[in-house]
Amino acid sequence: MSRTLSDVEHRPVTDVPHGPAPRRTRTSPLPYALLVPAVLALALALGYPLVRQVVLSFQDFGLAQQFGRPPDWIGLDNYRELVTDGYLWRVTARSIAFCLVNAALTMAIGVGLALLMRHMSRGVRLLVQTGLLLAWAMPVVASLTVWQWLFDTQYGVVNHVLTGLGLDYEGHGWLLRPLSFFFVATVIVVWMSVPFVAFTVYAALTQLPEELVEAAEIDGAGAGSRFRHVVLPTIRPVLLVVGLLQVIWDLRVFTQIYILQEAGGSARDTNLLGTYIYRLGIGGGEFGMSAAVAIFMLALTVVLTAPYVRAMLRQEGET
């Protein structure tokens, strides 16, 4: 007797054959075990110094403790003294202003160079990239020696050129006044940081689909509109990461400021947080106080970088 279509449609579910139940895969602990040595190494290399710094900030640790005397636990006394220290707040405001100005200039010049390299011929682009790479790879102390000679009071090329243009810069001491000191420091820091931004942003621009730019151009979008609505959204994640790194690096700048101070600048009038911590600890022997300033600087870094981190998380959530 043949089955009708109605019989097939009303066939009981129990008549459907069932295969064997899928086996539940067991997660191997081997990958986690392989991560343990790396995690332990990071904890020792990064975690221990941070914990030691925090503990040191709650102690009275000076030169006597360097020779074996046990430190005294003073709790929050170092932090209370910092809060009431007017000089620290001047140094903090100076450091924030220096950081933001340098980061903004570096990002603007670096992004501009990356956009220009995208439209250069291959030979010119290789020449520009070679110059940027040499500037980036040059040791900091060696490059600072060259910059000191450029801005030297008596034999500096900068004073000679400006004097030749009719300006009164003969014998001008660039490092003697705080404003001109930080101008020189800004030129050096930006010069050293621009290659990283230019290379990173140019690498992001090479991944930009040309079809999008051409379509926007066909639709009548100008150069500014194409950059704002096509190029910028595409490279925005890279810009956020690079901007985050620049803020961190420019806030904790030390070598350039310290060497310029040793070359003739007034340390008290030109100290930033990095050099202030160094002079408190190594120079003044107040290691507990310098540790407290270092923790304060860490908290300030978190505050300044929080907008970048939120923007990065929001960008990741949108994708």
Automatic annotation (TrEMBL):
<keyword id="KW-1133">Transmembrane helix</keyword>
<feature type="compositionally biased region" description="Basic and acidic residues">
    <location>
        <begin position="1"/>
        <end position="13"/>
    </location>
</feature>
<dbReference type="InterPro" id="IPR050809">
    <property type="entry name" value="UgpAE/MalFG_permease"/>
</dbReference>
<keyword id="KW-1003">Cell membrane</keyword>
<feature type="region of interest" description="Disordered">
    <location>
        <begin position="1"/>
        <end position="24"/>
    </location>
</feature>
<feature type="transmembrane region" description="Helical">
    <location>
        <begin position="95"/>
        <end position="116"/>
    </location>
</feature>
<feature type="transmembrane region" description="Helical">
    <location>
        <begin position="128"/>
        <end position="150"/>
    </location>
</feature>
<comment type="similarity">
    <text>Belongs to the binding-protein-dependent transport system permease family.</text>
</comment>
<feature type="transmembrane region" description="Helical">
    <location>
        <begin position="181"/>
        <end position="205"/>
    </location>
</feature>
<feature type="domain" description="ABC transmembrane type-1">
    <location>
        <begin position="92"/>
        <end position="308"/>
    </location>
</feature>
<feature type="transmembrane region" description="Helical">
    <location>
        <begin position="32"/>
        <end position="51"/>
    </location>
</feature>
<feature type="transmembrane region" description="Helical">
    <location>
        <begin position="287"/>
        <end position="309"/>
    </location>
</feature>
<keyword id="KW-0813">Transport</keyword>
<protein>
    <submittedName>
        <fullName>Sugar ABC transporter permease</fullName>
    </submittedName>
</protein>
<dbReference type="Pfam" id="PF00528">
    <property type="entry name" value="BPD_transp_1"/>
</dbReference>
<dbReference type="InterPro" id="IPR000515">
    <property type="entry name" value="MetI-like"/>
</dbReference>
<keyword id="KW-0812">Transmembrane</keyword>
<dbReference type="InterPro" id="IPR035906">
    <property type="entry name" value="MetI-like_sf"/>
</dbReference>
<feature type="transmembrane region" description="Helical">
    <location>
        <begin position="230"/>
        <end position="249"/>
    </location>
</feature>
<keyword id="KW-0472">Membrane</keyword>
